[in-house]
Structures are given as structure tokens and as C-alpha cells.
Amino acid sequence: MAMKIVLVAGARPNFMKIAPLFWEMNQLPSVFQSIILHTGQHYDYEMSKVFFEDLDLPEPHYCLGVGSGTHAEQTGKIMIEFERAIQNVHANLVIVFGDVNSTLACSVTAKKLFIPVAHVEAGLRSFDMTMPEEINRKVTDAISDILFPPSRDGNENLVREGVERNKIHLVGNIMIDSLVTILKRINPSDEDRVFQKFGLKRNHFVLVTLHRPSNVDDKNNLRKIMHFLNHLSLRIPVIFPVHPRTKKNINGLDTNYAVNGNFKIVEPLRYKEFITLEKYPRFVVTDSGGIQEETTYLNIPCLTLRPNTERPVTITEGTNELVTYENIEEKIDLILSGNWKQGKLPELWDGKTAQRIVNTLKRMEL
Ligand code: UD1
Fold first, then answer.
1. Is 211 in the pocket of ligand 1 (CB under 6 A)?
2. Per-residue model confidence as pLDDT tens digits over 295-354
3. Measuring from atom 16 of ligand 1, which residue has the nearest CA?
4. Ligand 1 close to Cβ of residue 124 (< 6 A)
5. How many CA atoms are closer than 13 Å to the CA of 8, on its beta-carbon side?
6. How far apart are CA 205 and CA 262, in angstroms?
7. Cβ contact 313:319 at 8 Å
């Protein structure tokens, strides 16, 4: 009988991690029956459904529709709804991805029902317990049965925290699998359409994404960032697809930043459009985890507006650097004068991570 495997999707960055694994398992129907469960943590069309479309994923088999709330409300609702849904599934394994609240809620709930749990993107650590994601990562890793780190630092963190070595399988970065696939699907006319739509030229713009509470929930910080980007756009066009959390907070600032046509504040982009833009900026400013990884793969300079990162290989091997409000301008000057490091690809970031996960699971009796 095929193993029943539940893939837990919750928030935007989960969807591109699920897709490669879903398709890889689908090729082996006698071994795996994969079931997509969407908690509904992200629910807007642009934050969820467009990703299912661009990644060719079917409608989720289960939708819990939990929506937003405080951390406790959201995590609690996911646990209650997930427990109810999973009772009828008789799953052999629940696979959770990344570090969002859905990852934590579903891993804890499954374990208490004696269902084995695998964590894809295990072992990453920012060592910053003020980040909700760090708490989610540590709890999920501590109780998971199978851990799939994306890079060697992940293995080391897990071993240091006392996880048995035989539970840890270094498989590489699954987000890169989706990136490799979508890059093949973007053709020059798609690209032209995107650049026309936004009135941009290849290699002459800056791509910005910011949504971390530390940058966007604090009014003073957000105001500083918006002034800075507005000023930057006088030098080089800036495009800023705005996450709902950020949008709400920008609206609360009472300043209309879109008066300068070179500062393009737009809705969240669909995956294919975003990756099209991400191939060609002079540099990226972000606080996202996934974008630090994608820019390393694409060899695009990345300035991460955070005091730390759980993805250190993007700095030691890739094109990423951490920046502050104080030194970002200096770093931008370096990039614009052509003085930025060339990255190299981290180990196993080759588009074959899903294959390695499937090969590992095939060998296990679940
Ligand atoms: C979540 C993840 C974060 C991830 C990010 C990617 C946690 C703790 N955080 O943060 O790690 O990097 O997703 O986007 O899990 N909202 C909408 N529509 C949506 C979703 C959210 O309007 O589809 C609004 C709601 O007002 C909500 C706010 O955005 O309160 C924040 O959403 P939430 O899921 O709580 O956290 P994110 O900031 O998206």
C-alpha cells in the first residue's frame, strides 16, 4: 500500500517548497499518496492561490481556512482544525516546511497523535529568539522524526542541540528546485511583458521586499525605510511589491510615497513575475529568508536589512550581506560602482532536493 503523506502548506513561502516534492512523489503512485493540506494562514488571492497556479499545484485536498490573528490565536486555531482534519486521514507521515506558524502548529499536533513528522528546511538558526520563526524552528526540529536541512550549517546546529545524527539527512535547498523549474518556464516574451507592465529596464532598477515585524511594525523604522527608498529612487528606479502586513502599516504613515514615478509601490507579485524581476535588478533589498537564497542562486547582490540571518551560507558563499539603516547607503555605493562579491552555489542547491527527499523516504518503513 502507498504511504499516505500529508504536505502542510500555510503561508506564501511554503508553496514553492511543497510543489517539487508533490510532483516528485506523484511520479511514484505505488509508493506515495501525497495529500496537500492548506491551513489558510495566508488566504489573499495574491498570497496563496496565484502560487498554486504558477506552480501547477492542484487545489489543496484539505483547506482549514484559519486566517489571521495573534500568534496564539493563529497557532491555536491551526492546531484545533488540523487535529480535526488529520484524524480521518490515517497518514503515515506529516511533512512540514520552513518556519511559519503552520509549521509549528501542525508538527506539534501530529506528534501528539503519534504521527511521524518530517521537517523540510530543518536546522536553520538566526539565534534570535525575538523572531517568532526562530521559536517555530526550534520547537519543530526538537520533535521531528526526520530532519532535512538545506545546508551543512543546519546539520551542525541540529547536532549541537542534541538531535541524533541518524535522523538528519542533508538534502539541499528545495526552494531552489522550484526556482530552477520556473526559470525554464519564463521565456523572453514573458519577460518583455513584465518589464513593460512595470515600466522598468533590465539591470537598471532595485527590487525591494520588506515584511518582518522588526522593520515594518515599528512606525519610526518604516518611515525611515520609506524615506530612504524614495530618495534612492531618484538615483535608480525602485520597485517594491508590498506584503499585506507592510501595506497596512504604510497606509498608517499618512504620507503618499508614490508621487515620484520612479518609486513603484505595487501589490504582491505572482511567483513567475517576481522571479522574472529577480533575474535582472542591480541589487535587491530584503528581509525575507527565501529571497536571500534566490539571489545567491541568481548571483544578484542582496542587501538584507536585518541584524542576523538563519541562512549564513548566503553570506559566506553567496551574494548576500546584512545591512543596517546606517550603512546601507555605503553598501549601495559599492554595488553601483561595480565592487560586489561574486557568489558561488552552496552545496546541493542544484534543483534535485525533492529527488533526494523522496529517495530517503523510500528507504524508510513508515
Ligand atoms: C508569515 C510568516 C513569516 C513569513 C511570511 C511570508 C509566521 C510567524 N510568519 O508572516 O515567517 O516570512 O509569512 O509572507 O508564520 N494578511 C493578509 N492576507 C494574507 C495573509 C496575511 O492580509 O493572505 C495580513 C493580515 O492582516 C495578517 C498580516 O498580514 O495579520 C500578517 O500575516 P501573518 O500570517 O500573521 O504573518 P506574515 O507577516 O505574513
1. yes
2. 999 999 999 999 999 999 999 999 999 999 999 999 999 999 999 999 999 999 999 999
3. 244
4. no
5. 34
6. 9
7. no
Contact 360, 348 (CB under 8 A): no
- Mutation test residue for ligand 1: of 39, 100, 102, the one with most atoms within 8 Å of CB: 100
Catalytic residue list contains 231: no
Ligand 1 binding pocket includes 137 (Cβ within 6 Å): no
Within a 10 A sphere around the Cβ of 142, how many other Cβ atoms? 13
Q: Where are the alpha helices (DSSP H) in 27-70?
A: 49-54
Neighbours of 76 (CB within 10 A): 15
> Would you say the CB of residue 282 lies under 6 angstroms from ligand 1?
no
Q: What sign does the dihedral 94-104-317-200 (CA atoms) show?
A: positive
Joined together, the cell numbers standing for residue 12 give: 506564501
> Which of 211, 227, 231, 243 is an active site residue?
211
Decide: 109 and 81 in contact? Cβ < 8 Å: no
Ligand 1, closest atom to CA 136? 8
Minimum CA distance residue for ligand 1 atom 9: 100
Q: Which of 20, 16, 4 lies closest to 47 in space, CA to CA?
A: 16
Backbone angles phi, psi at 211, to 5 degrees: -150, 0
Look at the alpha carbons of 161, 167, 171, 174 in this order and tell me if their dihedral is positive or negative: negative
Q: How far apart are CA 101 and CA 64, in angstroms?
A: 14
How many Å lie between the centroid of ligand 1 and the Cα of residue 12? 8
Instruction: Report the alpha-carbon distance of residue 160 to residue 366 in Å, rounded.
Output: 27
Q: Determine which helix (DSSP H) or strand (DSSP E) holds 296, and give its type and residue range.
A: helix 289-298
**Cell numbers that stand for 105 in this block:** 502548529
Kindly state the cell numbers that stand for 83. 487535529
What separation, in Å, do the N-terminal and C-terminal C-alpha atoms of the chain show?
11
Contact 212, 306 (CB under 8 A): yes
Q: For atom 2 of ligand 1, which residue has the closest CA? A: 100
Using 50, 70 and 90 to split pLDDT, how confident is the model at 256? Answer: confident
